[in-house]
Amino acid sequence: MGYNVTQKLIKDHLVEGKMNPGSEIGLKIDQTLTQDATGTMVMLELEAMGIDRAKTEASAQYVDHNLIQEDSKNPDDHLFLESAAKRFGLYFSRPGNGVSHPVHMQRLAKPGQTLLGSDSHTCANGCMGMLAMGAGGIDVAMAIAGEPFYVKMPKVWGVKVTGEFPEWVSAKDAILEMLRRHGVKGGVNHIFEYYGPGLKNLTAMDRHVIANMGAELGATGTVFPSDDETKRYMKLQGREDDWIELKADDGAKYDVNDEIDLSELEPMIAKPSSPGNVVPVSEVEGEPIYQSYIGSSANPGFRDFAIASKIVEGRHIADGLSFDLNPTSRQMLIDLSQQGHIANFLQAGARLHQAGCNGCIGMGQAPATGRNSLRTTPRNFPGRSGTREDSVFLCSPEVAAVSALKGKITDPRKAGFDYPKVQELDKPTIDTQLLEKPLSPKESAKEELVKGPNIASIPKMDKLPNDMELPILLKVGDDISTDEILAGGARVLPFRSNLPEISKFTFEIVDDTYYDRAMKQREDGGHVIIGGTNYGQGSSREHAALAPRYMGLRVAIVKDFARIHWQNLVNFGILPLTFVNEKDYEDLEQGDVLTFKDLRETIHKGNEVNVKVKGKDKTIKVQHALSKRQLEMMQSGGLVNWVKNRLE
Q1: Mean pLDDT across 44-61
Q2: pTM, two decimal places
Q3: Measured between alpha carbons, how far is 33 from 63 in angstroms, rounded to an integer?
């Protein structure tokens, strides 16, 4: 039997385990990606583990999230990251160079390689024939140190692509259609692989759009073959020598089969407050909007901006509306400017922001209270925009631009004018001035880390106790995102390198009393959190595990976990358990006290644990999915302690 592309990538990088779905495998990592919202902690972890230099073929540190400099915290951390990149032998992408995912695609992505990033949208580079996955920062730190990345062997979900887009429909509508079908947890423990005759109608950047939001499906990754279109793109970027062909063998099979006919798609939109809440745009037409926003790693290409530019050319946006443009890379911004697109936008009334993530992570461009925001970003979880009670819709650039002209959500097919045609550039700008190359080992050894006053070292973490009596401090429902556990935005993210400070924002969207109650309980042994399905979906930021751990969280019991957050909990010594009988979730209440006996021995003997509810004469059965390696980590109190023990 032949292999599909995903299986080939895994087979070529497999260093531990067997390719049996659900079993733990270890993969050699060729490249890593870190950004400033997560990378500061990664660099501190490299320091804590005593690593001297990156062992990967290419590791890059990007500054694209925390660009607003309202005080010294962000620029201080930028200096720290630059010094760390020099010290550990990493590429460094300076502020203003652009969003990590499209810049990495332009400059460093290589077909046939593995990429691990401390950003859940790292999967975007699966568009280049790579196995690209998001993970917690400490997993990326381990990969930089030359250690394998451990993950459960995914099933491969094959999606046959046919047809071509009709007018006013584009790649964002394709991935929104997949989310409409399968929701935000439909792809958990799967890698989506796209193949078929319709691929010839998807550019490399169209594929980026689709691969990027595979994260919203809960998938481990998204893979496209490396074909003539990949070669064309790499040639335009001056990197044709890095191209190899990589496609599925004849007769390759998939664990799940799906098909998407591009010609049958229509404009789609995700309603608040989930990327999985997708309907045709025609169902929500007429909703007034305060903001229309184009940019982010979910629509980062030249074409995505150029089509919007042609739509608004010679026209003007609606009164009272903010039309926000967030270019995704510096070299693309140069092209947009040279081709007259920036002038089109400005003449139409748009606001131009710097190249970066910006409002996608709540770093500026927050919408007004009680008003609708229409965005081409990948996520609309509650509060992610920077406005606590936000109302954010996700859509394509076509929908965003036409709606900006009308002042309300509009099906672009009813724009009242012809669909503009946009040609890809024959010679796009290649600009590497803000991407600093790694220093030589000799030069790196001389570098000192530059630490501003906001950087705090990672606190020591104790081992998992054998016996615990812990209260349920918080009970939450389904689909709790890491944005709800620990929000992004300009208020919170500047404290990313200061754990005691960033912890103060934990669960504030869900329960603003949690921090005070948790810190009071911390000295009495800690606490438990109870949750529903898909707990921890969304961003890979490990602070959503690290902050609760700092505040005394020892055990999380839920119906099921999102992949990256589950792994982050393990990495920091929080025991992740799921209900054997999901009905037990209903019987537990905030304030109940749970008793764990002989826990260290029990989790080693099997995967089930009996937990008594004090004072209720009730015992619930829970289970873990930890590998032998992860059990050792849990006993040690987390991955940092486990690594230290190995090095001693």
Answers
A1: 91
A2: 0.91
A3: 11
